[in-house]
Amino acid sequence: MAEQSTSSNVNITDAVLNQSPVIKDAENVTINYTQPPSTSSSDEDEWNSMIKLMKLCIKYFEKEGTLRLQGVSAKEKIPEVHPAIHEINYYEKDTVPVDERYDPEGPNELFKNKIKREVCFQDLLDEKDKFISIVASAGSGKTVFSLRLAKAFSLLQRLCIHLKFMDANYKQPLTLRQLLLENMFPGHSEEFYTACFSWMQKNDDKIVLILDGLDQAQYSLEKISPKINYNACVPVKDLVFNLCRKHFFPNSLLIITSRPHAVLYLPEPARPQVTYALGDLSLEDTKKLFLAFADEDLWRKINATSSQMLSMCRNPLMLQMIISTNTDPSEDIGDASTPTRLFATVMKNLTYSHNFQFPETMDELARKLQVLAFAATKHGKVVLTDKELRDEGVDPTTIHDIVVQLHCHRRPINSRLLEGNTKFFFCHQTFQEHLTASYVVYGMPVEEFQDFVETSLFQKHWTVVRRFVCGLLFDLESKAVSGDLQMKKKILKKHLIQQLQIILEKYMDRIEKQRIHLVGDDEEPTDEPTDKLFDLYACVGEGKDSSIATKAAEHFPTTLLLPMPMTLNLVPGFCFIMKHATKQLDILNLRYCFLDANSFHEIASVIKEMKPGQIGRMEILGNNLQPSNIDDVIGLLRVVRDQLGMYGCFVGDDGWRRDANQDEINKIQSTLNKIETRLKVYVDLDTMLRSQK
């Protein structure tokens, strides 16, 4: 971040700073060195200036809060969409990775055991506490969310000032008035700033201060700063610390947004009273946002060919990349229908960036980033330091400016590949995982690769990396790759099939124990084979290699209970394997998998192509089906042989689960009457349908 200055900084001199006392007990000392006092203002001047300031703030919110996607222009008004919001027990032990360590489960899993309650946007506007933090992963929309929050507070007649940490990394000391007013809204008179600041001090209960992106501050707040007065001219970190301590504007509402790790480093006296975690967009909001930038044809195409991409779209950054890579693509960017192909496409399109400043080629830069990413993932961290980058031959001043700019028709968003100054984060953890996998595939010697696969790759730590490795290696065309890659593909295939054999044995042992009641249906064993089995299916699906899927299908269990819940990213791999399954299935249990309409349609489409009677019993109760899914249910009737349980599988208009209605029951009965089958369909607890032939 370049050093920023304004005309208001001319009064700051070294002489003023030299008046600072030596601080021995920073907690109890008030620093009184100040700039010359300003002339006082009348109540009327203060009121008029405050009204003018509120208008400036609202104009800023509307300008900065406008969502723009890279490479595509909006074709309609951008809808207001909001991520899920949960109040969490943030400062309990092991809430988040304190040391910024790598977690393969991803940011949305960090708080699952710490949630106190789910809240809505309005709850934040009614907040009674004086200091709150909002934490979320990169690319989840923290800044847009905070700007909309700021605008909403302004409509409630509260003065709301929104300041981005990345725009306030000033190296020179300054006063609180300069930080919040003069540097934010330059070019106004001394009288205006004086009147506004005076009103703020007298009416701090009407103020909301939003400091956005603490993780992008180029200074540390880990040490306790001295207490200072309103006119003190000090480093920015001391101003921020005193805001957190409520030494300034004690009755105001202070909101800080950040990636999770940064807020943990605040000393206890300066910690927020309440912390909220932002999650993903709902599928409904995801579709609204998607359709504001792309046609419904693209939504349907992605849904039909790679529904796991819709799951990724729930993160706004991923939505941006997916739309960009599918809209007016560059020549020869390939098919971005899997996460592996998507990230390969994004990396390739960095080559076309107008802001590309790295002195070497993109391939050379990618190789260096792969080495860095692998080392970070191996050692369990998600940050890179200045020294690590330079040791690998990467100048942070050039890499910091790389943006993913894909065929921009309007003003682009600068989505930086790396953030920060002395610490660097990949713009999304999945970038680190994809680059790590790329190193394993393209940079690791064959002998080292074999050892890595045998000893490490199938451990939980490498879960996401493993999927990318499978995607990169299994998705290769044999005629177009080197001998080393062919050898790696052969090694990976061998060990993947071995893992499937091992996990299948554990899985069937668990099923047998459940059958004889040694393990309860709701009991979670320490080693859960169901999750591992479906993760391996996801690895096979990522590669889209039919020969591997056919071999994997040989290890398809005859009794199959899907994970609860069945996440979107697991559905494609499961379907890919099931397409190649030829054995009879005694039981296929989709009970309480919480499948949405799209996921169920994808699974049902595969089942409809199976042999008549290939499935003995099937359960689909406890899912989130829509009326349109009745055709999918009807398609199952020829394949399921003995019993289909489906009560409570639909979601009504009120959001509650419901049984099939009379029209749906009639359609099922009509289809049963046209086929010869012994199938019994349980549509609710009291109604059973069967063929009348």
Automatic annotation (TrEMBL):
InterPro entries: NACHT_NTPase, NLR, P-loop_NTPase
Domain NACHT positions: 130-264
Record flagged with keyword Repeat: yes
The keyword Methyltransferase is annotated on this UniProt entry: no
Keywords annotated in UniProt: Leucine-rich repeat, Repeat
Domain of life: Eukaryota
Signal peptide location: none
A Pfam family per the record: NACHT
Protein name per Swiss-Prot or TrEMBL: NACHT domain-containing protein
